[in-house]
Amino acid sequence: xxxxxxxxxxxxxxxxxxxxxxxxxxxxxxxxxxxxxxxxxxxxxxxxxxxxxxxxxxxxxxxxxxxxxxxxxxxxxxxxxxxxxxxxxxxxxxxxxxxxxxxxxxxxxxxxxxxxxxxxxxxxxxxxxxxxxxxxxxxxxxxxxxxxxxxxxxxxxxxxxxxxxxxxxxxxxxxxxxxxxxxxxxxxxxxxxxxxxxxxxxxxxxxxxxxxxxxxxxxxxxxxxxxxxxxxxxxxxxxxxxxxxxxxxxxxxxxxxxxxxxxxxxxxxxxxxxxxxxxxxxxxxxxxxxxxxxxxxxxxxxxxxxxxxxxxxxxxxxxxxxxxxxxxxxxxxxxxxxxxxxxxxxxxxxxxxxxxxxxxxxxxxxxxxxxxxxxxxxxxxxxxxxxxxxxxxxxxxxxxxxxxxxxxxxxxxxxxxxxxxxxxxxxxxxxxxxxxxxxxxxxxxxxxxxxxxxxxxxxxxxxxxxxxxxxxxxxxxxxxxxxxxxxxxxxxxxxxxxxxxxxxxxxxxxxxxxxxxxxxxxxxxxxxxxxxxxxxxxxxxxxxxxxxxxxxxxxxxxxxxxx
Length: 563
Known about the structure:
Blueprint (H helix, E strand, L loop, with lengths): L27 H5 L14 E2 L3 E6 L7 E8 L2 E8 L7 H8 L11 E5 L2 E7 L13 H21 L2 E2 L8 E3 L6 E3 L6 E2 L7 E2 L17 E2 L1 H17 L9 H8 L12 H10 L19 H8 L22 E3 L2 E3 L2 H10 L1 H9 L2 H7 L3 H16 L4 H12 L6 E3 L2 E3 L2 H13 L6 H9 L2 H9 L4 H16 L3 H16 L4 E3 L2 E3 L2 H14 L1 H11 L8 H9 L3 H12 L1
Antiparallel strand pairs: 1-2, 2-3, 3-4, 4-6, 5-6, 7-10, 8-9, 11-12, 13-14, 15-16, 17-18
Helix pairs in contact: 3-4, 3-7, 4-6, 8-9, 8-12, 10-11, 11-12, 13-17, 15-16, 16-17, 17-20, 18-19
């Protein structure tokens, strides 16, 4: 299978920071931000800016600066000394020095230390939000209002942050408010221009779709806010363990996949802040646009609003006459479409008995025409009712990115991939026939053709999965293909083995070494789990290695044992 790992190639070596690597195209990163050799160490008692006395160097790892705890008039501050001589734009520093808001970290003074730029900023004794989790109530009461006001202050002063994430948000001294920090890659807008075109060291898993095209807007910061809120509630981002390439591939064909335990109101907020389409951003009367300050503020106040995209949410404006189906009344085409998909057989009856076309004739002739075309196609082609019905669903609701098939709906292909992976980990085979049918019917290819027809890499990858299933002639081969499907669609690169979770080959190698040091018998027992007496690797282990881009190494290993 030439395409089985195409989307999720893992960088070998240095992969601890692979998710947060910066763009480095044509060497532009080093042209824009020349990296100096670094700063020299400061001594305790040394005075900065004529008044801030150095207390100690802070034990905080940051790739861009050295941090020192300093003191002035018995108040503690932080001196941030950048390791690059061109690190923060002067116009940003000047704007920030004029901002007085508890939701944005102040810059008290700027200067130089040994030729390197320095800022004096507040000392947040409780650290950042990185690694913290919050309840829905805490987010709604404290965190979301603080961040919304912080972004408004920045945007009102013409600053786009461009890298909002938990590590760039600090906990206030009252343990409730939070403040936005770290403006090293921020941009200032000029002449009321709301769009910035630039290359920058953004963090891919928090970045809005348009930023992958080097386009930055106020809405881009709110997309990052949505991903940040997801992480603060769940403890991980929706694109956790995915590389930049995979994020770019999927971000345009899916909604954010939400866990079942996330409250619907929070799902609505995150969905609205991460809405993909920015076409209608200037048309305030169009609900299909990404939320920014005003909408988030209304959400915090409990005001019901239409959620962009598919009519998700509490405010039922309605784009069609009431339609009764399965005991419910629907006034949104998108919601009716999803109900038809979830109640597959009953939905087909509504279509092929002419009930849908008859209804839409009275309120939407275009949709009525789609239904009539589907009815006629079913009379000409036998045995394709499911496919005909499936195609109609996407004509009725063209903006949806959900993946539908026979009574199930997934929030995009990554959500389907995660379900497959979780069931494989649990040895739950109850849905195997369902997944096999998706591959046999080429539903992945059909979905990509409708929702991402220009994404050739994704199209080739799913075709490889479907071809792999067709060629699989044993149960082991089919299971391996399911694992490859799960890894490729989900973007996850985790292996569950021996009661543990592994993210990299290095982690697994360390585990095996620990076993060997502890007991050769335990080491040998695990080896027998990984490879049988016919030299077949454990299916998950082999698939995981392929997902990590180790196909060449696997082929070399096989040649060695055969030789």
